[in-house]
Amino acid sequence: MTNLGVNIDHVATLRQARKTYEPDPVTAALMAEQGGADVITVHLREDRRHIQERDLRLLKETIFIKLNLEMSTAPEIVEIAFSLKPNQVTLVPERRQEVTTEGGLDVAVQKDTFKDLIKRFKENGILVSLFIDPEPLQIRSSEEVGAELVELHTGAYANAPTGGLRLAQLARLRQGALLARERGMLVNAGHGLTYHNVGPVVEELCAEELHIGHSIVSRAIFVGIKRAVEEMKELIYRHSLLAERINPKG
């Protein structure tokens, strides 16, 4: 059964628009947990445009589910992660000018950097995921640097303008997930997933976790965080059951 990771960055984005104290992303995380979230995901960016260190400390102290910290390899952020000790870190590319993460890591050209970081995180008991495009070179490189987990970037699928292109991207994701598992890695997925497009991803990838933020927070404006999470969980549950019927194990 695929788990749901709820990204609460956009709650913090709304707060930071006024540089005030509300809405509180920590409160949103607690409500998401009540709605059935399995993971809370946050991205501590170098420019602190949304999530703040205060949020990380409070999340670590208050939530009972997994905390997944998305982060760059910047030394300052790495040291914060070692101090905080989240359950999982997801290394992602980061550029100041981007609105949101635009693509996966180029693990192939930074093998030494990732190999060293993954080793250090493992020594501190922190699971490391690499956010990559579903390309064979990046998947093989992720295994070579010691990653036990990859998160496949679903943006090209989510943004495909036609049904045919969407199916092609879904096939690319499916092949990427198969290759990652053949290489001994677990598979997560995320980026651009919504209530309308998540079903095929659940059915085809059978991922450990899907990380979804913007769509859930957008829905929450109208129905509240708890219900928005419940609705996404129900979708994932139904499509997970369908996937198990189509591809029974054993």
Give an overview in words:
Helix 10 packs across helix 11. The protein starts with a strand and ends with a helix. An eight-stranded parallel β-barrel has the order 1-2-3-4-5-6-7-8, surrounded by eight helices. It has 250 residues and is α/β, with parallel strands linked by helices. The protein contains eleven helices and eight strands.
Across the major sheet, the strand order is: 1-2-3-4-5-6-7-8
Kindly report the name of the CATH homologous superfamily: Aldolase class I
What is the average per-residue confidence, as pLDDT, rounded to a whole number? 94
Annotation, overall tally of beta strands:
8
Question: Which strand-content bin applies to the residues?
Answer: 15-25%
Number of domains: 1
Class inferred from helices and paired strands: alpha/beta
Q: Class in CATH?
A: Alpha Beta
Work out the helix count.
Answer: 11
Q: Radius of gyration, Cα only, in angstroms?
A: 17 Å
* CATH topology (fold) name: TIM Barrel
Largest sheet: 8 strands, parallel, barrel
Which regions contain 5 or more consecutive residues with pLDDT less than 50? none
Which secondary structure elements does this structure contain, and how are they paired or packed?
Elements: E1 3-7, H1 9-18, H2 25-34, E2 39-43, H3 53-62, E3 66-71, H4 75-84, E4 88-91, H5 111-123, E5 127-132, H6 136-144, E6 149-153, H7 155-158, H8 163-182, E7 186-190, H9 198-205, E8 209-212, H10 214-223, H11 225-246
Parallel strand pairs: 1-2, 1-8, 2-3, 3-4, 4-5, 5-6, 6-7, 7-8
Helix pairs in contact: 2-3, 2-11, 8-9, 9-11, 10-11
